[in-house]
Amino acid sequence: MVNDVLSRMGDSARYYTNRQQIIDDIEVGTADAADAAGIPVMTADEIEALADIMCAKDRTVGITPGREVVFTEDACIECMYTDNGNCGNGVDMGRLEASLIMERSMAMDSLELAINDYSVKAVKPLLANEIQALEEINMLMTVPYFYGSMTNLGIYYAPDGPHGNPADLMREFKVDEAREAAENAAIQMADDIVYVSTALMKAGAEGYNFDTIGSAGDADFYGALIGIKKLREEYPNVYINTGMSSENVLGIHGDLEFEGHQLAGIYPNEQVKLCEMVGANSFGCVINTNTSKSSAWNIARAVTITKDCVKHANIPVHVNQGMGVGGVPMCECPPIDILSRANKALVELANVDGI
Amino acid sequence: MSVPHYMTSGMGGMRTAGDLVARMEFTKNMKIDAAKDYVAKKLGLVVEDLADVTVMREQRELQKLGLVTGMPGAPRGIVAKMNIEKVLGIEINSCKVVREQMGF
After folding, report:
1. Considering only CB atoms, which chain B residues are within 8 Å of A60?
2. Scanning every residue of chain A, which has its alpha carbon at the shortest distance from the alpha carbon of B47?
């Protein structure tokens, strides 16, 4: 068979392949996802449909009209003006200008205010400044305007925070101390979430986007769930978006439960149920990209896990499709050929409500 | 990355009815199809119109829901959001706080 299909690896390297190889990669990718998450593989029809998307001759592809979805984002206004290795464009401007450009020129369906140090802990000492900026920008923005940050439990540990670092403690075989430090840090993080988010809602924020939840493992997810539940109790009508950091929750503590549910190791189909339980309005599932595998393999994994998450969700699911997640290659500027293929696959085969 | 995502599957934000559909997902936990149905009914349109920039440019002007292009006298920002509240039958927190500050 002639290698006449242009495709990409998970690191975005270009290569030529053929339809049979694409189908083989899809079958292996969906089987890998099914094995990891304990969920069904893609059907034969879905495999053929994904092969059609991957083998399309056009440079970019698009969804069938009528299947359009809406977008959320994480600190994308920051990317207009930052230039510090975080994929920013480095165009000097303020957050108001960046927000209006994203709203009126980039067709975003929702946006958020954020600071450069995108962590709830870092917002706390700047809260008055953030409220002032929010009040001003709220006057001019029309699309749903969240405040957003990571939960980021990692910076509550030494040397950045007051709690012992579980990684250091475990290296010294102090497992009980490591777990205690994680639990205490999670409670402090939850308190900060409540303090920061309720102050912003009181000032008129339309919602809070909790981004990259679980980046420091199960204790990070635990603290986030506690904080979000309290925010929902105080503000029953504000928007709460919960976005994850990776496809499964790392068991750094290993034994934490939230209201009887084990957190370590759970995949999006279970993560979304916990986020629903604490009052989230939307959920951002993450499926990691493997840079050594083909995009066909990665997108098949993303479709398999996301489709099962959507099936179990009672709230809208916005799949993460930034750099290195959701079938998108891990690189700073994802090529539009493979980005559009990953996007179409997740919308049409996994039935997401947004991206 | 916003542009290729929009080109592939985006509703279009304020260019169309993307922000309105998004609000129904966040306000009522509606899935995408239910949110589109709800918004279309409230606007007096069919679902197919919601991502059509030609239809929605006119409708947003008529219903005072905020425009991406300049139109002297046409509301944007907080005024447009207060109109969106009425049309969709929802409460938006930024509008609620402004009303409280105004003593309403």
Report:
1. 4, 7-8
2. A66
Q: Are A146 and A239 in contact (CB under 8 A)?
A: yes
Chain position carrying tokens 């750094």: A252
Q: What is the DSSP string of A295-325?
A: HHHHHHHHHHHHHHHHHH-SS-BB---STTB
Question: Looking at beta carbons, which residues of chain A come within 8 Å of B19?
Answer: 109-110, 142-144
DSSP assigned state of A119: B
Residues of B with Cβ-Cβ distance to A231 under 8 angstroms:
none
CB A14 within 8 A of CB A329: no
Residues of B in contact with A138 (CB under 8 A): 77-78, 94, 98
Nearest to A151 by CA among A54, A200, A220, A58: A220
d(CA B96, CA A198): 15
Nearest to B8 among A65, A323, A344 (CB): A344
Residue of B nearest to A203 (CA): B97
β-pairing verdict for A282-284 and A239-244: parallel
Decide: A186 and A220 in contact? Cβ < 8 Å.
yes
Q: How far apart are CA B39 and CA A75, in angstroms?
A: 27
For residue A323, give the chain B residue with the closest CA: B1
A246 burial via Cβ count (<10 Å: 0-12, 13-18, 19+): middle
pLDDT digits (tens, 9 = 90+) for A43-78: 999 999 999 999 999 999 999 999 999 999 998 888
- Nearest alpha-carbon partner for A201 in A234, A226, A225, A224: A234
The answer to whether the pTM exceeds 0.95 is: yes
Q: What is the CA radius of gyration of chain A?
A: 20
- Angstrom distance (rounded) from CA A125 to CA B50: 42
Average pLDDT score over chain A: 97
Buried b (16+ CB within 10 A) or exposed e, A11-41: ebeeeebeeebbbbbbbbbbebbbeebebeb
- Among chain A residues, CA nearest to B80: A142
What does the pLDDT read at residue A76? 86
Give exposure, A75-110, as e/b (b: 16+ Cβ within 10 Å).
bbbbbbbbeeeebbeeeeeebbebbbebbbebbbbb
Cross-chain CB nearest to A109 (options B3, B19, B27): B19
A152-162 confidence digits (pLDDT tens): 999 999 999 99
What percent of chain A is predicted at pLDDT more than 90? Answer: 94
Hey, what's the torsion of the CAs at A171, A176, A182, A183, to 10 degrees? 180
ipTM comes to 0.98
Integer Cα distance of A282 and A209 in angstroms: 9
